[in-house]
Amino acid sequence: MKQKTGIGTWIGFALIMIWCLLPVVWIISLSFKSLAETTAGSPQFLPKDPTLDNYSAILDNGDFTRALINSFGISLIATLLSVIFATLAAYAIARLEFKGKRIVLSMALAIAMFPVVSLVGPLFDMWRTLGLFNTWPGLIIPYMTFTLPLAIWTLSAFFREIPWEMEQAAQVDGATSWQAFRKVIVPLAAPGVFTAAILTFFFAWNEFVLAISLTSTTRSRTVPAQMSFFVGPDPFNPPYSQLATASVIVTIPVIIIVLLFQRKIVAGLTSGAVKG
Amino acid sequence: MAAIDMKNIVKKYGDGFPAVNDVSIDVADGEFMILVGPSGCGKSTLLRMIVGLEDITSGDMIIGEKKVNDLAPRDRNLAMVFQNYALYPHLTVYENIAFPLRLAGASDDEVDKKVRNASKTLELDEHLERKPGNLSGGQRQRVAMGRAIVRDADAFLFDEPLSNLDAKLRGQMRTEISRLQKRLGITTVYVTHDQTEAMTLGDRVAVLKRGVLQQLATPRELYTNPGNLFVAGFIGSPPMNFLPAEVDGTSVKLPFGTVQIPQERAERAQGKGLLIAGIRPEHFEDASVKDDTSSGSTFRATVDVVEWLGNEAYAYIPFEAPPEVQKQLTQLEHDLDGDQMRTQLVVSLDGASRIAEGDEAEIWVDSTKIHLFDPATGENLTVDESRAGRIPEREDPKAKEQAEKMADHGEEVHSAEEA
Ligand SMILES: Nc1ncnc2c1ncn2[C@@H]1O[C@H](COP(=O)(O)OP(=O)(O)OP(=O)(O)O)[C@@H](O)[C@H]1O
Ligand SMILES: [Mg+2]
Questions:
Q1: Which end of chain A is less crowded, N or C, counting CB atoms within 10 A of the terminal residue's CB?
Q2: Which residue range forms the structural domain that includes residue B367?
Q3: ipTM
Q4: Residues of chain A positioned with their CB less than 8 A from the CB of B165
Q5: Ligand 2: distance of its center to the CA of B47 in Å?
């Protein structure tokens, strides 16, 4: 079924690209405009005289860099822990027969569907009592709670696809259950592991409600929350260009990660082929 | 290297299904043992119990001198080739073969030496850096073999290793496996449901039905002296013909006429009423191409269909069977997965035979080779026990009956599930 891609397809493709990318381009263009230009009232699409001032200003802004570090730290730790727990849990769910397996799975799903906002109040009180308010763990724990269920579901689907025999072959070859898991099952489920990792990372990276409610200083505030504290010299005129610059900066890691992991996911999927 | 001794092995699965019933098989050190039987008869289950992937419900599994019932697979030091090869898709061919060595903590030098050695034996040298996903079926099969031979395992276990290959490759790999096993002289248990593999590869063959051992003997013994109706029908292609027969003195009355059989055979079948005679297709011949017809008997019959293959021809002659015999034959067909029409005689003729479809032909039969079976029990009355290996129902009829009863229970379990 090899067909020349029709001209119509290309037009449709271009339209969708414009639709999706225009806001992104707009933000990038904004980030190169000077403050004076954005407050002028009749902004043109391309910056009149492009400047890097916004970038140097924002990178000099201690609060912002601090928030960036918080974001990275919290997202990476949440992702790592979440993936480790999810992998172990999903493996158990896919491989073992135990009572209450269905309940575990449906509970996990129920948690994933729980609205974040409804937890803010209780968490706020709890965290203050427990001394977790305005700390990294204070954000990492709820992030894991919300991403684990999805990660478990994704991963157990992947594990179920791996033939039992892979593992049995490893055991006959002399592996302990743990070695079989680590050397055969996890590498084979790599696409699933990466998918789960990406989902978790994005959730933590972009999350706003918890980030703003459970923090009070830049000690643990993440970038999305920190950005709402950006106030320029004029309180009635938010510093649009600086906000745009911050947005560009937080988007860059996301793009890099997607490009990196996308390779992995595709590679993992195609190297599958078990049977003859 | 080690002998494998299975003593009264029983396997009941979690759902109550008895997959293996009181099977005792002794595999000598260095012997090539074949497990054969129709689909679902418990061959894989038995093999997986040897290797430790399946718990043993009762009985003793002894490898070497050691009882291994409770040992984990990795402590049994056996190598297994799975039906779908179970290669690790994320590792190169080299690493696949090296996997057991790496787990055992071998040094890089040693790993390299052994892997190259194995790959040379199996002609995999130019594929070492490739991933299994990019290999052909035969190459994958060889990688799986490589993974088994790099270790100094006590025994090889194969679960239908050739069933995913096309006919030509299967033939090649069959000789390959046979050569390898002879060279390494390693104890081997090989599961198959392919006739040719069973007959050509094995030192001895164990025939299973519904998880019950039917006969354990060399291929030649199985072919010439089947212990019962099931083994007789299972071994040989085209299969043995089964006809209703009545014995009177030394003469046997068949649907096509009466033939004379040797005295000592006839004696064993005296006074048993209606019997089933088993005659292999090649023990018939076109009387007109046979120089000396004195050693057997001849009869006349109308040939329905002739298939001429050049070196030989198959002629089909329909007959009517009385209900008692018919019932037993239908049951047999069911046990054998029923792909054969049983109320016609299949006769193998010399390629020079001129018999055509619709002819009434004179057929010669080598009556010294006729087996007589008891229709009630399926037992072969004319078996030469000194040349039939082990037949459990002769050794211990009670135990065998008990095992068959357990197997009957299995049919209930399965039919209950369907309902
Ligand atoms: N995990 C299980 N639970 C319950 N019954 C099982 C299980 N595995 C196999 N069985 C049953 O045990 C019987 C023997 O299965 P087994 O796989 O050993 O057959 P086999 O002789 O290898 O057949 P085939 O030639 O089709 O591979 C079958 O009837 C099957 O339905
Ligand atoms: Mg099987």
A1: N
A2: 238-407
A3: 0.84
A4: 276
A5: 9
